[in-house]
């Protein structure tokens, strides 16, 4: 793994998630709400990822990488 920090642009990631989603709804308002919900969930997930990535450990240690993946699984979107 690279020693450089991985920083993901939250807006670009969230847009990619929404554009790659199959958002089907009965009306445009529902579809828009679903898209917004998905955008915000992806945006804040990446912000939290970026904060975790900024922690003072290195991903070259596989145990640290596993810790990050487990931490991401426990992020609550409220």
Give an overview of the whole structure.
The radius of gyration is 15 Å and the shape is elongated. Helix 1 (10-19) packs antiparallel against helix 2 (28-53). With 78 residues, it is mainly α. The protein contains three helices and no strands. 62% of the residues lie in helices and 0% in strands. The chain has helices spanning 10-19, 28-53, 62-73. The protein starts with 9 loop residues before the first helix and ends in a 5-residue tail after the last helix.
Layout of helices and strands:
Blueprint lengths: L9 H10 L8 H26 L8 H12 L5
Helix pairs in contact: 1-2
Could you provide a short overview of the structure?
The chain is mostly helical.
Strand runs, count: 0
Q: What series of H and E elements makes up the topology?
A: HHH
Structural class: mainly alpha
Low-pLDDT runs of 5+ residues are: none
CA-atom Rg in angstroms: 15 Å
Overall shape = elongated
Give the N-to-C terminal Cα separation.
32 Å
User: Number of helix segments?
Assistant: 3
Beta-strand share of residues: under 5%
Largest sheet: none
The percent range for helix content is: 55-70%
Task: Look at the structure and give the mean pLDDT.
Answer: 82
